Amino acid sequence: MAKVGFEHIRKVYANGHVGVADATFEVADGELLVLVGPSGCGKSTLLRMIAGLESITSGTLTIADRVVNDIAPKDRDIAMVFQSYALYPHMTVAENLAFALKLRGHSKQEVAARVKEAADVLQLETMLDRKPGVLSGGQRQRVALGRALVRHPQVFLLDEPLSNLDAKLRMSMRVEIARLHRQLAATMIYVTHDQIEAMTLGQRIVVMQDGQIQQIDTPMALYEKPANLFVATFLGSPAMNVLTGRLHRDDGVVLDMGEGMRIPLGHQARIDEQWLDRDISVGVRPEHMLPTTGSVNAETFSPEVEVVEPVGNEVFATLRHGALELVARFSPEVLPEVGKPLPLSVSSRHLHFFDAVTGQRLS
Asked: How distant, in Å, are the alpha carbons of 131, 154, 161, 193 from that of 206?
């Protein structure tokens, strides 16, 4: 396998649109790295530049320390799995797996050995004589993965490979891909707009917005210490609650949001004195909004419950506090009553503070 390096990679289209602004990072040998962001953020453009399907406007792209900017896609030793399965409908599974190897002139014995190897890894042994039309979506995606696997490439590129599958199949295929990566110790670069896929699959995640890299880190580091408001609200489901106002000290730290609306942040909130009396955005994850037992006090507030969504192992509650909509996550033992106020406090130790103007994290 191989490492992949990006040095000031930039993509500008003929109409002036900047697809990728300035990408500089490295994918380690054997790493599963995920590119994530909303549609149009540049993640697929970056992947296609690795594959050689998009030209690079400026910067240097290396695979295994070899500069590949001007090297044809077929000579880069990569394999790509697309969103559509792109299987040949008139060929059997075995023939689909073998097709690229035959084009490259491999012997019949080697083709047969590699097809068998891929079929064993992806549990396709019983389907080799079937055609794609009789396979399920998950089976077709495994064949698409197998077609990449048989080539023994230096780098696997996966462009939203699970987006056409239903929720249950996506979950099982995530496990398949994670297992495949562990077995092969392969370098994989995986593109998705689904933050659940990113969090569960990626050893590291690159978060992108409008062609710019916002943050690169491990999934839990991104979740626990987002660099800015975009990362904070993009990763996590439900999304982080963002409260904007001015911090004061008044029997603990209080966020004054104007029009008489105040939210207590508690005596334990860790703030810099410079943040007082300036516009601040405070991020609170839904699981860090805590139902209060006993009497209402200086550290509680009472939004009204609008919607309750029990999903078995947890409960989501949509709350209204003045003009502010909040989402809280509770254990199933807590089932708030719709239309009633719900006394809450926030977990002071788990607050995130951001500059209200720039959106950058304050530390």
From this structure: 37, 20, 17, 11
Task: Identify the burial level of 281 via C-beta atoms within 10 angstroms of its C-beta, where 0-12 means exposed, 13-18 middle and 19 or more buried.
Answer: buried
Q: Answer yes or no: are the C-beta atoms of 91 and 103 closer than 8 Å.
A: no
Terminal CA-CA length for the chain = 38
For the chain, the residue count is 363
Taking the model in full, what pTM does it have?
0.90
97 in Cβ contact with 113 (< 8 Å): no
Model pLDDT for residues 207-255, shown as the tens digit of each residue: 999 999 999 999 999 999 999 999 999 999 899 999 999 998 887 888 9
Is the Cα torsion angle 170, 173, 178, 184 positive or negative in sign? negative
State how far the Cα of 37 lies from the Cα of 202, in Å rounded to an integer: 14
d(CA 298, CA 275): 21
